[in-house]
Design a protein that fits this description.
Layout lengths: L5 H5 L5 E4 L15 E15 L4 E9 L2 E7 L3 H7 L5 E7 L1 E3 L2 E5 L2 E4 H6 L5 E4 L4 H5 L4 H15 L9 H6 L5 H9 L4 H33 L10 H9 L7 H14 L6 E6 L5 H14 L3 E5 L3 H14 L7 E4 L5 H12 L5 E4 L13 E7 L6 H8 L7 E6 L5 H7 L4 E5 L10 E6 L3 H13 L3 E5 L7 H18 L7 E4 L5 H12 L5 E4 L12 E6 L7 H8 L10 E6 L5 H12 L3 H12 L1 H10 L13 H17 L9 H13 L8
Parallel strand pairs: 4-7, 10-15, 10-16, 11-13, 11-14, 12-13, 14-15, 17-22, 18-20, 18-21, 19-20, 21-22
Antiparallel strand pairs: 1-9, 2-3, 2-5, 3-4, 5-8, 6-7
Helix pairs in contact: 7-8, 8-23, 9-11, 10-11, 20-21, 21-22
Bound molecules: adenosine-5'-diphosphate and magnesium ion.
Length: about 675
């Protein structure tokens, strides 16, 4: 259970509590009552042999009636140790069996012992494993261990917060909180103990993150991009294809302000699909170039990298800037040229996939790295890039997966965050509906009407790693039914999936992009980034199998042109309640942040961030979803404390300082997040 020291034990908190204030009499038992506690005596014990094994049965009485206690295991020990006609407190679930109540494997304690123990209103139940239980390390043993510890410690836990904070926030002191989390004297004190310990946990995480952010600002030097120069101005004045939205202007300014400070930029740029992150990236790149640096832009897939490349080349076509693309499928001869041009500084911008992280790729002077859809990359991969320079490049991470505020605060608390919260003008919001499989004919009719208007359609099938063959079959079956419904020569259908060669994929994709085909049948390979403004319908098959953020990403493929766009979620009729919530949420809102909040609630934080980062959120007692108010409080308090005392050197912050040092010394698990 990760318990090695007394401190580990003391900080091992119950995950629930059972009310043991109430005692039942045997004649008060109900057939469906939950766990009950009764005082009585055992009058006799007998072993009953049955077909498979045997059981030990005790007759248990109080002044109102009679019941049975039953054991199937550990009978020998019990027979030797149970005291007849001596008052016991028993606790457990009861069954109605053979006209009598019985309690299997009750928790038992002699009444005399029971009275001596540290008595609590709520009985703590500790997290455990089956193995531990089977080996006899039951909840009772854990409670005993805890009792021994607390008797020894006798209220000598170090206070970790300052008196000021405790007063201001009306928190319990450390000792009282620790005692009441393990041995709650009342429901009220338990609640207060939980509040205090949750606050403390969140506070110290925030303190570390914010301090780290401050240290980075002062300690990690970065290149100074002192001027906005010729390329930027030339582009901005003569080649900008549209007016920037206010949000785009705002985040461009935020980036600009970062890169002149002399500290390394670590910025997360969040913007919903279609919000126009690419142009912001290009503007940032131009600032880097204007100051004599190279820039790179890295995407998670080849298709996406290619699309970025095409977009950047198109935007910069009138300007004397060298841009190249490096992906896994670039030939060796071409690679050599890229490597050389990079090293001698001839190449200004390198766009690519993780191929850019390879050791052979050496920049002459990389000043800015833009990473798209960062959740696809390992932290280690990114860190490699830093080594290639005397100073680390400025880093701009772009993501279209909106990260809920609470999560952003805990996981990215040490990054600066920019948000594009406004879509380019003229976009119509996408209409989303949910249809069952048996409405398929009317859906097809709708498609014919849209295609007749010159629109294009995506039909997406799920692709889930563990059942690739099944998904492939679904996709192929779907494809065949589509070409039956939409036959040549009137209709042309493209198909793209993971089993195709990159070149074939590219070819099919390109046909759709060029408007040569009306329908694109695909797996989720089109999930990110692909941009076809004329596509106005997104059909998602087996939508119940997709996660919320994926549904939202997919929907973002349409609604990029001036026409009304639609998203149709197809599903079977049997839906889990989570699936219903997901589909419902999609129908109700287009707001990525709202969707992310629901997603976080449904899936929990660990899952949402992927395994890489989930360790960060292995909180002992707080829960960033349920305790989001407390999290915000903890963050603002941590900011306040550090504002007044950046090094925690003031006497009143001594407790905080000591704890901080202790935490960072032991395991600085929050240290390497970004
Ligand atoms: P994303 O944030 O999803 O990467 P893109 O950068 O691909 O979004 O932009 C989506 C589309 O919107 C592109 O076709 C782009 O040219 C267009 N676009 C971006 N910004 C604006 C703007 N300010 N005005 C009009 N169109 C814009
Ligand atoms: Mg994009």
């Amino acid at each position: 259970m990760g318990i090695f020291t007394y401190a580990d034990l003391a900080n091992f908190f119950p995950n629930r509590y059972i009310d043991r204030t109430r005692f039942f009499k045997i004649n008060q038992l109900q057939q469906n009552s939950s766990e009950v506690q009764i005082v009585g005596k055992i009058t006799s014990l007998k072993t009953v042999n049955q077909k498979r094994g045997s059981r030990l049965v005790a007759t248990f009485i109080d002044e109102t009636g009679r019941m049975e206690l039953v054991w199937f295991r550990g009978m020998k020990w019990l027979k030797d140790h149970i005291k007849i006609n001596t008052p016991y407190v028993i606790f457990g679930k009861t069954n109605w069996f053979n006209g009598m109540y019985s309690m299997p494997h009750p928790e038992m304690e002699l009444l005399s012992e029971y009275k001596k123990n540290l008595r609590t209103a709520m009985q703590p139940i500790y997290p455990s494993t089956e193995t531990l239980n089977n080996k006899g390390f039951t909840n009772r043993v854990m409670q005993k261990a805890m009792q021994t510890l607390f008797t020894e410690v006798n209220g000598k836990f170090q206070e970790t917060l300052s008196d000021d904070l405790i007063d201001q926030l009306l928190l319990l002191g450390k000792n009282e909180a620790m005692f009441n989390i393990h041995f709650p004297k009342s429901q009220e004190l338990l609640t207060k103990a939980q509040q205090r310990l949750k606050f403390e946990e969140l506070f110290f995480i925030q303190l570390q993150l914010i301090r780290k952010k401050l240290l980075k600002k002062t300690n990690i030097k970065g290149f100074v991009f002192e001027k906005v120069g010729q390329s930027f101005n030339e582009f901005y004045e003569n080649h900008l294809p549209f007016d920037l939205t206010n949000a785009q202007k705002k985040v461009t300014k935020e980036i600009r302000n970062d890169v002149i400070t002399g500290a390394q930029m670590n910025r997360l740029l969040q913007g919903d699909v279609g919000s126009g992150k690419t142009i912001v990236a290009v503007l940032a790149i131009l600032i880097a170039l204007d100051n004599g640096f190279q820039a790179t832009m890295i995407a998670p897939t080849e298709i996406l990298a290619t699309q970025h490349y095409n977009a950047v080349v198109e935007l910069l076509q009138e300007m004397p800037i060298h841009v190249m693309l490096l992906t896994g499928s670039v030939k060796t001869s071409k690679r050599k040229i890229i490597h050389k041009m990079l090293e001698n500084g001839e190449l200004d911008i390198l766009i690519g996939t993780h191929a850019v992280f390879e050791d052979k790729v050496k920049f002459n002077n990389l000043g800015l790295a833009i990473i798209d859809e960062q959740h696809r990359f390992g932290v280690a991969q990114r860190a490699k890039m830093w080594m290639k320079n005397k100073l680390p490049p400025h880093i701009l991470v772009m993501t279209a997966t909106p990260i809920p505020r609470t999560l952003a605060m805990s996981v990215y608390g040490d990054l600066d965050i920019s948000i594009i919260d406004e879509l380019p003008p003229g976009r119509k919001s996408i209409k989303t509906v949910h249809r069952f499989d048996n409405n398929r004919l009317s859906v097809f009719k709708f498609l014919r009407d849209e295609i007749a208007k010159g629109r294009q359609v995506y039909i997406v099938y799920p692709l889930i790693e563990e059942s690739k063959t099944l998904d492939y079959k679904d996709l192929m079956d779907g494809y065949e039914s589509i070409i039956r419904e939409f036959p040549l020569p009137e209709y042309k259908v493209s198909i793209v999936h993971g089993k195709m060669k990159p070149a074939d994929k590219e070819y099919e994709m390109q046909r759709f992009v060029n408007g040569e085909t009306n329908i694109m049948v695909a797996t989720t390979v089109i999930e990110v980034g692909v941009n076809v403004p004329n596509a106005s319908v997104m059909i998602i098959e087996s939508a119940e199998r997709f996660g919320l953020s994926q549904l939202h990403q997919l929907r973002g493929r349409v609604g990029r042109g001036a026409d009304q766009s639609y998203c149709i979620l197809m599903s079977g009729s049997k839906l889990s309640s989570d699936a219903k919530t997901r589909l419902q949420t999609m129908v109700e809102t287009n707001d990525g942040f709202k969707i992310a909040e629901v997603d976080l609630k449904l899936r929990g934080p660990g899952d949402l961030m992927g395994t890489q980062q989930s360790g960060v959120l292995n909180l002992r007692i707080a829960d960033i979803v349920k305790d989001s108010m407390l999290l915000q409080k903890a963050r603002s308090v941590a900011i306040e404390v550090l504002k007044n005392d950046p090094n925690l050197s003031k006497t009143e912050n001594r407790n905080i300082y000591n704890t901080y040092i202790e935490i960072t010394k032991n395991k600085n698990i929050w240290a390497n997040i970004s």
